[in-house]
Design brief:
about 425 residues; Rossmann fold; Transcription Regulator spoIIAA; 17 strands; about 35% helix; about 25% strand
């Protein structure tokens, strides 16, 4: 970034990471001002922990860089504007719609403007372009924003607005630009990919279009709700080995009563049906999931149902969160709260169950060869991910460029990764 007097600090989801890269691109040609550095905090409001991290970062910046201006931008700023929370640590606050005008935001804070910038209409998603994060191997490409689900625990509809989708032609052009920059893997992301609905085409059509680009080495889907796992999408994904055979589902619970209280809009049986459909079309596919533990009304029996789903599916990766009541959401007012100690115990139990079940998945990989995207080197060891999103450490007598894809034979498993050796 040309303007080294602006630093962007990112919290939260892949959409935020994409938007930070987009803002860096916007600021690349902006004039710097070393006398008044600016810190843009691209912050999240999904959980109380996310907010605390942003506040701690702002206080640390204020202590270490007293001359700097601090801007809070994104979901947390929108939550402040909506009266859902407070954030007194920033000089200027700007909602998500200002991210496409980050250069204007920086100019305004440098001119001395303080407080909350007024709400504005978001720019069309077709206007959003990212050059990718030069510190990452894979590039996130945001194709969708906003959400209409209104899950009872979530602030997304309050801070991201209604669903919007980027046109397929714009995504294809952005993909080609990212590939020309040198990114070997493109990750399609959004607030809810299942709600991707451009004026022309659907998600399956987008996948076919991107897989027609010869320069594309890997295409990956970020988290997608089960309703988005349509038969046409699964068929498109199964048609080309460059489409990474890993599906991450924000499951949230393995119990129908809890899912109903969350207003998730699906049953456990429907999720398992979609997982089975993916497995039938892509036999080597792996799965990941997000789960919320300790949701109000989650009984021991409901938690046991979640454990059974984890046992049945055998997730390759699992993100487990303790329920965080967010003021302004329906879930914050629900009866029958789960005590923090019980929630912590359930998280520990779920983690043990998942690790035991994942061990079977990893054991089955020993003796097989997989293509690994090399992400870093540590001494004489290289590290990276297979296309089905398993983490691999491997040794080689060759000099292997970071960002290349190499065949690796798995020879052993460790606690959190596979061990391998280059297979020529």
């Amino acid at each position: 970034m040309t303007d080294r007097s602006v630093e962007i600090v990112t919290f939260g989801c892949r959409a935020n990471q994409y938007e930070s890269a987009m803002m860096r691109r916007l600021l690349a040609d902006s004039p710097g001002d070393a006398r008044r550095p600016v810190f843009l905090l691209n912050a999240c409001t999904v959980t109380g922990l996310a907010e605390r991290k942003a506040r701690q970062a702002a206080r640390r910046i204020r202590r270490d860089h007293p001359e700097a201006a601090i801007v809070l931008i994104g979901c947390l700023a929108d939550a402040v504007q909506g009266g859902l929370t407070r954030f007194d640590e920033a000089d200027l606050l700007a909602g998500n719609a200002w991210k496409t005008r980050a250069d204007v935001v920086v100019a305004r804070v440098r001119s001395g403007e303080r407080g909350m910038l007024p709400a504005i209409e978001p720019a069309p998603l077709a206007d959003e372009r990212s050059a990718g994060d030069p510190h990452r191997i894979r590039a996130f490409l945001k194709i969708q924003d906003g959400c209409a689900r209104a899950c009872t625990y979530c602030r997304t509809t309050q801070v991201r607005g209604a669903p919007r989708s980027k046109p397929i032609d714009a995504i294809a052009a952005e993909t080609e630009s990212l590939l020309a920059t040198g990114f070997p893997e493109i990750v399609l992301t959004g607030i809810d990919l299942a709600q991707y609905d451009p004026p022309v085409g659907r998600l399956a059509d987008l996948v076919h279009r991107l897989l027609s680009i010869d320069e594309l080495s890997r295409l990956r889907l970020a988290s997608i709700n089960p309703s988005g796992l349509t038969d046409p999408l699964i068929e498109a994904w199964a048609s080309d080995s460059r489409a990474c055979p890993h599906v991450h589902i924000p499951l949230q619970s393995g119990n129908d009563d809890v899912l109903h209280a969350m207003a998730r809009g699906y049953t456990v049986a429907e999720v398992l049906d979609r997982i089975a459909a993916v497995g039938a079309a892509i036999p080597d596919a792996t799965f990941g999931a997000d789960l919320i533990v300790g949701f109000p009304g989650e009984t021991d029996e409901a938690f046991a149902d979640t454990c059974r789903v984890v046992d049945e599916v055998g997730f390759a990766n699992l993100h487990v969160f303790r329920f965080s009541p967010r003021p302004g959401t329906v879930a914050a007012t629900l009866p029958d709260p789960v005590s923090p100690s019980v929630a912590r115990h359930r998280i520990e139990t779920l983690d043990r169950r998942w690790r035991d079940r994942r061990r079977v998945l990893l054991d089955n990989r020993v003796g097989t060869t997989h293509h690994v995207l090399v992400e870093e080197r540590r001494g004489d060891e290289w590290r990276g991910y297979t296309s089905d999103y398993l983490y691999v450490h491997f040794a080689s007598s060759q000099e292997i460029p970071v960002g290349s894809i190499r065949p690796v034979r798995v020879v052993a498993i460790a606690e959190n990764h596979l061990e391998g050796t280059i297979d020529d």
